[in-house]
Design a protein that fits this description.
There is one protein chain. The protein contains eleven helices and twelve strands. The chain is an alpha+beta fold and 290 residues long. The protein folds into three domains: 48 residues, LysM domain (Membrane-bound Lytic Murein Transglycosylase D, Chain A); 46 residues, LysM domain (Membrane-bound Lytic Murein Transglycosylase D, Chain A, Roll), CATH 3.10.350.10; 123 residues, Pathogenesis-related Protein p14a, CATH 3.40.33.10. The strands form three sheets. Strands 4-3-1-2-10-12-11-9 form an eight-stranded mixed sheet. Helix 4 crosses helix 5. It is globular, with a radius of gyration of 20 Å.
Length: 290
């Protein structure tokens, strides 16, 4: 499987955020690359904690001359290949289960995503049920028991639907395709499988009171799509919180990162999930694939 480079665009403001992924190259000696854009208040330490890498690794991967960074600066997160000495350490096998992500496994076994990537020389975050991973010896036995949780059910909505979509979702799809028509782009086709995933993500953000691309339940949007059988070469995600569809759409179109996803020429399908609730009134998730 070819390497994928995931680029994260975080835009100023609390109500909207966008993410997109595309094929790319890798740095010599490193496997998975994630490009994140520095948020106001970020430090290298905060970024290192967020992505499970060390400050020194961030400095090395980005050829930084100091620890000074600025809002909007692109920072590459590169997970390094295991060295031979690391590979000679004693490990145990762990078999991937349904719903597992690297984030969930690392948390459950008391290790880090970076270590799992390094030990197993992974070239993608995607996992398959039954896949065998190597974990530090004893980690599997020392894992804390995590109470099992049922998958959140897709929210019910009594609003009239069109082709399985709620009226709000259909309205947003229409607004998106109007923008694409103005730009001379073909309309996106609603994919109900992606719609269901987008609804789950919106519901998860409301239930767990967070607003972020990375879900504590499902991991990254790319992990989540893979978990639910959504395949892609290009993929992206927009998030918004607002009281109405029109205001959410306006906010997204006023942000260059979100507008780039909405007008992405590589995208053919979209799943729009809108759930009532949360401090903004409604939570909006747009997931794009090719």
């Amino acid at each position: 499987m070819k390497n994928r480079k995931l680029a994260l665009i975080l835009v100023l403001g609390l109500l909207v955020t966008s993410l997109f992924g595309f094929a790319g190259t890798s740095f010599a000696g490193w496997n998975i690359n994630v490009t994140t854009y520095v948020q106001p208040g970020d430090t290298l330490k905060l970024i290192s904690d967020r992505y499970g890498v060390s400050v020194d690794e961030l400095i090395q991967a980005n050829n930084l001359k100091s620890t000074m960074i600025y809002a909007g600066q692109p920072i590459v997160i590169a997970h390094k290949t295991a060295t031979q000495s690391e590979q000679t350490v004693s490990y145990q096998k762990y078999t991937v289960k349904s719903g597992d992500t690297l984030y969930i496994i690392a948390k459950k076994l008391g290790t880090t995503v970076n270590k799992l990537v390094s030990i197993n020389n992974l070239k993608t975050y995607s996992l398959n049920v039954g896949q065998v991973l190597y974990v530090p010896a004893g980690a599997a036995n020392q894992a804390v028991q995590v109470p099992s949780q049922a998958q959140p059910a897709a929210p019910t909505n009594t609003t009239a639907t069109v082709n399985g979509m709620t009226a709000d979702e259909q309205q947003m799809l229409s607004l998106v395709n109007q923008e694409r028509a103005k730009a001379g782009l073909k309309a996106l086709q609603a994919d109900m499988n992606i719609v269901k995933v987008a609804r789950l993500k919106a519901k998860d953000m409301i239930n767990l009171n967070y607003f972020d691309h990375n879900s504590p339940t499902y991991g990254s949007p790319f992990d989540m799509m893979k978990q639910f059988g959504i395949s892609y070469g290009y993929a992206g995600e927009n998030l918004a919180g607002a009281s109405t569809v029109q205001s959410a759409h306006t906010n997204l179109m006023n942000s260059s990162g979100h507008r780039a996803n909405i007008l992405g020429a590589n995208y053919n399908k979209v799943g729009i999930g809108i759930v009532d609730g949360g401090k903004y009134g409604k939570m909006f998730v747009q997931m794009f694939t090719d």
